[in-house]
Amino acid sequence: MTAVTAGRGGRSLVDLVFRARELSIVAALVLLVAVTTGVNGNFLSGQGVKDIFLNASILVLLAVGQSFVIITKNIDLSVGSVVGLVAFTVGDFLAADHGRGIVFAVVLGVAIGAVCGLANGLLVSFGRVPALVVTLGTLYVIQGLDHFIAHGRQINAVDLPPALLSMGNGGVLGIPYLPLIAVLVMVAAGYYLRSYASGRDFYAIGSSPEAARLAGLPVRRRVMTAYLLSGGLAGLAGVLWLARFGTVVADAAGGWELQVVSAVVVGGVAITGGVGSVYGAALGALLLTTITSALVVLKVDPFWQQAITGALLLLAISVDRLLALRVARILRRRNARHGS
Questions:
Q1: Which InterPro entries does the entry link to (predicted)?
Q2: What is the pLDDT of residues 296-339, one digit of tens each?
Q3: pTM of the model
Q4: What is the CATH class of 3-339?
Q5: For labelling alongside 207, which of 133, 149, 271, 326 has CA 20 to 30 A away?
């Protein structure tokens, strides 16, 4: 058995295992919806379903961006702060000049997010500073900047252009714009990761940064690109947050870091890097959002939302570890058989 064949066999086995993880999330979603609907028939009302998809859209965008970073064996804890900064800053610009439309808002928001992502990427990839330390630091720096700009003010929906608010709450053919945007971004990101050599580089780097470097892959550039994408998508999510809620204060999306990382890991993107897909991360985001909505419908104490999110994160990390050990044992046995 050649090394190439063994590599392909290992890759296909890992893909099969984590595809099963994604199917298990779908099954959990179906079960959750069925149980909640059985208790309260209004859970699957037209407005209820619409609210779930609207609320999940922003988390899906953040999860897609975070997936790029975690696949490379890093993490970005600053995304929630970026959403808050972008939502308030863009809202402030639009409130001051109603002539600036949606295109301006999106370009400005993505640009602000990309600058934050660039700062993270430079420090992690070229400064060789641990990602956890860098992004925890930039989380507080961005929060401080947001509060400095806000000075205790808030952005109100009446101050924003109607076209922006329509994007956040309107739709086409009965389908809201926000889920459509999230799905388009997810499909584009998933296609890029699986169909382009540069996309597959992210997986190689996450599996073994040292081996990727020895193979001549531009490790630093790819890691910086991952942070740029995460920051840019967080910027887009900030604009959509503004469009969705209209009223924004300085700490918008504060504390979303746990939800984003949880969605990605629960969705099958291994926290140790090199494995997973943006589709799984999106399913994880949808699952967490549905759990939140179900708890509200069932009138459960909000404390349990955070407890369940934390428990799911621990469970997902434990499952990832067990699956990795299981796959490694299977591959060792397979290689031993073919070697003999």
A1: ABC_transp_permease
A2: 888 877 777 778 777 877 877 777 677 666 666 765 776 666 65
A3: 0.87
A4: mainly alpha
A5: 133
